[in-house]
Amino acid sequence: MSLNDKTVVVAGAGGGMGNAIVGALLEAGANVVGCDINVDSLSNYKGNRTFMDIEANLLDEQAVRTVFQKASDQFGVINGVVNAAGIAQRSTPIEDISLDHWHKIMDINMTMTFLMCREAAKYMKQEQAGSIVNIGSVSTTRPRPGLQSYVASKGAVESFSKALALELAPFKINVNVLHPGPCDTNMLGQFAQEGANVDEVKQTVFKDSVPLGELLTPEDIAKSVKFLLSGDASMITGSVLHVDGGRSV
Ligand SMILES: NC(=O)c1ccc[n+]([C@@H]2O[C@H](COP(=O)([O-])OP(=O)(O)OC[C@H]3O[C@@H](n4cnc5c(N)ncnc54)[C@H](O)[C@@H]3O)[C@@H](O)[C@H]2O)c1
Predict the structure, then answer these.
(1) How many CB atoms lie within 10 A of CB 211?
(2) Is the residue at 197 inside a domain?
(3) For residue 14, which of 36, 159, 210, 233 is within the disulfide window of CB 3.0 to 4.6 Å?
(4) Number of domains in the chain
């Protein structure tokens, strides 16, 4: 599956999935612009002439504009965008969630996706082509108790992606949402209750909830992102792809 000469902007590139997505896209021949509020983990890709990292808080409108401007200056046409930035929620009863915390989760998981898609649309409409992959969560389809704010933010990502798919279809811009199952990154342990043994929770609660019997790896997610960005997925838009080992069933 080749992405030769395609340029893809990856938000959350410094995270567990983001890093694997960057690697998979580079391997498929794409130019990749990896942006994150912290790009330290991307140092292994530095020096690659088809890779550029940008450290930015993507909740800042101007920063998002700058990311796309730099990507376009460096590589020309922007063909794809992957929104893989996000924040977890510790399993918490609703009465203990402050309004600030609610807003923080909605902002990082949903508003940032909106800002990235809004900017992407400007560039992609000019080309009458493009593909956007928004990372949601299987918890939208199968919620867990105590994750009400996170689940709401990811449900918003799903609805938003479908609405945008319809809006951008006349411009031949595809928008899809990928719902990962429990994936072995730093974030996974952050869903556990305060004081819980994170390794134990990962192996029991999360792994045991996956019918195929394994936690997802970031590479599992990256392969499906690569597919959705490729020409092989050109007639897929407004879709929800669960990459979850059967967790959503
Ligand atoms: N790990 C899982 O089990 C799991 C399951 C379902 C969905 N997801 C979703 O997958 C995506 C990737 O998760 P991950 O497991 O790689 O998590 P991660 O914590 O490893 O990565 C998230 C990245 O988002 C970045 N980020 C946060 N706020 C930012 C901001 N304001 N500006 C720029 N970057 C910012 C962080 O710096 C981090 O690098 C997230 O949207 C997450 O909600 C994860």
Answers:
(1) 13
(2) yes
(3) 36
(4) 1
Ligand 1 pocket, residue 135 CB under 6 Å: yes
Closest residue CA from atom 40 of ligand 1: 86
List the domain range (segments joined by +) for residue 120: 7-243
Tell me which residue has its CA closest to atom 39 in ligand 1: 15
Residues serving a catalytic function are 150
Query: Which of 82, 185, 206 for a ligand 1 pocket mutation test, highest count of atoms within 8 Å of Cβ?
Result: 185
pLDDT at 1 over 80: no
Q: What is the pLDDT of residues 90-141, one digit of tens each?
A: 999 999 999 999 999 999 999 999 999 999 999 999 999 999 999 999 999 9
Answer yes or no: pTM beyond 0.85: yes
Whole-number Å distance between alpha carbons of 106 and 160: 13
CB-ligand 1 contact for 59 (6 Å cutoff): yes
